[in-house]
Queue: 2 jobs
Job 1
Amino acid sequence: MFEPRWYTGFSVASYPPASHQSVAAIGTLVGLETAFVVAQLLAILLLVGGVYRFARIWVGPRSAGFAAIGMVLSTALTQTVHVFGQLPTVLALALLLHAAPPVASWLKLGDVRALGQSVLLVGAAAAVHHVTIIFGAVFFLGAVGLAVLSRSRAEQGRSGFVAIFGRGGFLAVLAFMVVGLVLLPYWLWSASDPLRQVPIPHGAGTISSTRFRRR
Amino acid sequence: MATTDIERRRSAVELSLTDSAAGPSPGSTDDLGRRPFLLALILAAVFHGGLLFAG
């Protein structure tokens, strides 16, 4: 669990591992630097699909396509990728957005397969970047949940509202268990060694100077 | 009149949370709708891929 070869050594549990493992896996074929580029590009393409699928919950296919184009051309993505090199953020967001349609299907229709997809995608996103799922659960999945609840109350009255609320609670508990399992090594490390890490300066930290970042 | 406006607004933002909520179905042939999405994929590959590989 301790990698001694880089930066005087560090615990590999000090960050959710999936994006780094992806780079390492691709790196066995093409070398590490090219592997990062390939992984980042794949994450962006996955994000295009994620934005499209998330937008399709709310609008038609044509509008959702334009939403995807807007995301590709956005300065936010360009800055995140090409200035800050935030592979974990992009990949986690992509996975989380892909989780939104199954979450909606589970809440609305009670589709068990959608429940499985939702939990697995949220767990995968957590394995890539823990902070993204905290914000994403509120702003993306939470928004979808509230919209489903609101609509069900208008259409089906109290009974539909209670059923969807119950499904949402079940999904939340299940997702929390999976995320907890995935992030357990990181949390254990974080609890035992919270402040002795040397912050590695990177651009994202300069945006919010009050936010403490450990990497 | 007011009710009609509300209904129109509601239908405009109404969620498509039916069976299609899982996203576009693979068999769908909404070519006009898919064109912007394909353009987004190509743009992402060319623009961001170009920048990444150039960097």
Job 2
Amino acid sequence: MKNELYFAFYAIKKNIQSSAELRTSFLMNIIGMAINNIAFIILWVFFVRSVGVIGGWTAVDIIGLQGFTAICYGLSFSFGAGIRKLPDYVASGAFDRFMLSPKNILMRVATSSFSASAVGDIIFGVTCLVIYGTLIHAGIPQVLLMFLLVVLTTVIFFTVTVVVYSASFLFIDAQLVVNGLFELFFTPSLFHGGAFQGAMRAFFIFIIPALLVGTLPVEIIRNMSMGKLAIVGVFTFVWLVLSIKIFNRAVRKYESSNFMTFGG
Amino acid sequence: MKELRLAKKILKTLIKDRIQYPGRLFADTFGIIARCGILLVLYAYVFKINNGVINGTTFDIAAWSMFFYFSFSTLGLRGISRSMMQDINSGHIEVLLSKPITYLLYRSWWQIGMGLYSFIVISIFSTLVLAAIVGMPQTMTVGLFLPTFFLAFIGAILLSLCIYAIVGLLAFWIEDVAPVFWIIDKAVMILGGSYLPVALFPDLMYKITLYSPFGASLFITHTVYESWATVWHKLIGIQVFWVLVLGVVVYMMFRQAVKRVSVNGG
Amino acid sequence: MNQNSIVVANLSKTFSFPVKSVSDGWLKNLFSPEIHKIVAVDNISFSVSAGERIAFIGPNGAGKSTTIKMLTGILFPTSGSISVLGLDPTKDRKKLAYHIGTVFGQRSQLLPNLPLTDSLEFFGVMYGMSDKEIQDRVAELVVLFDIASFINQPVRKLSLGQRMRAEVAAALIHRPEIIFLDEPTIGLDVVAKKTLRDLLIMINKEEKVTIFLTSHDVGDIESLCERTIIVNHGTILKDLPTQELTKTFAYEKYIDLISKTSFKHFPKLPNGATYSARGKNKITVAVDIKILTVQESLRKLLDLFDVEDVEVYGTELETVIRHMYERAPTSKKNS
């Protein structure tokens, strides 16, 4: 296990060095992504201005929500960007080299690529959480909770992504299908958390865990809700186990195919 | 005549392709459910707790307005940027430039063809579902609605293709155009009335929406409001203006861009 | 005398690109970088008659792909003139495209998910053919290229050999006068290569299509092309009938010596003979017959070495071409 982690960090370091060679592009990606993320804050802040406080959520909570989701996304896809290339690896037969590698396949695939734009998400997310913490006058317990929740929500986010992208082994046109499935999880996580009530809320916590990565963390911090923290904790473990099992099952379905470049 | 025949062939071929490989249809269905479907459920709740009216707008009008945005998105015209970037970065552009086609038109028809099947199926199905659940506002049942909606729809297609083609052509000059794409795409998303219906815009934002090409590219989201009956000619006029201006920009950029083609290999 | 289908005069192409200087700051590199120029094609001139089969070859980076791309209108020349079938590719690219076909070995132009027939029909419409013309032409190509067995299969399921035949068929749907092929046999097995070469010779003879080919495969050049133009560093080194190429190094002979037991010592060779390869079991000696005759060199070598077997042969085309590449001028106008 120690060797696996060591190699994973080595692969990540090489990916970063490779990305950073194109320095201008690297910086443009980071800045561009940060600007991209501000759009959602603008939208939901104007929403709150128009409709008022819903479910106890104010405009400040929107900043916290975007902070958590951006960090999850950024951490998962900066260091584990390779997982999003899984449909392409499988369709082209490039997945062969991961099967032949003497390392854990999931880690090898995840660390096979690095996304510079996701670093923009991390920076943006951290900035949002700092602003959020300042605006709600967060105390030490809340700050510590924030750190804990960043870890838990990132694990949930990454493991759910693994489950979704494991579908790459099942379809020919997998890229589009898995992207669509991923949307079902990721898009609701960006929505105003207070508007999720009743059956919708239950569905997006227990079935599709979209609210676990942004909405619940904000409510936990705001209300110091240990019950919700327990839910997040339990589901972190559940999704972790599920993702490893599902990925390994899916790999067994793998078939090689020949590589050809095509255009339109 | 020949161009039209080729356009028809492109559309037919791609629709056939999409029918045989319905991955895109699944993806777009998930997409519209995830974005529009869930969003409308949330807004239904929000309107309910605000006694059914926010900023003088009722839920049914807001719902149809946002639905038009997401439905139009399934046509996937923004993808023309990525297609052009890939053509340029991979060198595939050399294959296309050796054919008797106008590259810009070819890519435009190709992009429409890629999304047309999904767009038709999803739009018809979701229109029926939305009509059944939310009903149709009175503004959509007047005689003026359909012809003016059609005009705004054509304007939306042309303007979207222009905007995203400009981004795509930048790949001839800039190595990584993705950040530019995100910023432009977000401008369209915000000003187009997607996650926040146009009726809930603050005044300044509404003005920017009216006069910028990003907002103009999605005037279909304005067609369901009561004000449309009096302002439609102004808005269509703004669309026509931007189509002409950006069309010229695209053409000029392409003329310069082809001189900059440099392909790897000796 | 055949009309010229391609006339190139004093053609040059220079690429400029910014280069990051290590000593300069990042900001300067971004806004005011150093510009380097590479002269990819340097003042070349040649013409091609209708119906010829030409190999246009050179080492990697020689300028051959750049030249082909200027001929097809993909790249704009820096200076000089090009006339392809009487048209200027830079001004009449689209008009010219109706009369030429292109095959890029490493890039497919076919529709991957649909049957091959769909791609052929697609290109037929693109080239302005009527439905009847397309139908008739597809039927012809099916017979000519023997693609009936896989014409209804999705293109992405074809083997590489089948795919390349399909690519060439698609490039000929509109009966072009010239076909440009960039490495068409790359990655093909020996049988597939022979099949493709035979097809190209056949369409050249039956449809009078001019063939303009670049390839690194010596077999393509030898079996397919009557004329070879060798480029390197952007200039034309040789332009001659392919058969004459081997005669260029006709003064070189090679002698393989197979040892009786094993070669332990490698003494100095007489003037005119040099070691080409040295091993325990086999030595190859290159002999310049302008200095030393084959008979004399054999006598001297048999005195020096204890051999089981001897083989004498002339220069292979591949070696000839390699010599040409190695001989090229080393300086190039860079700034």
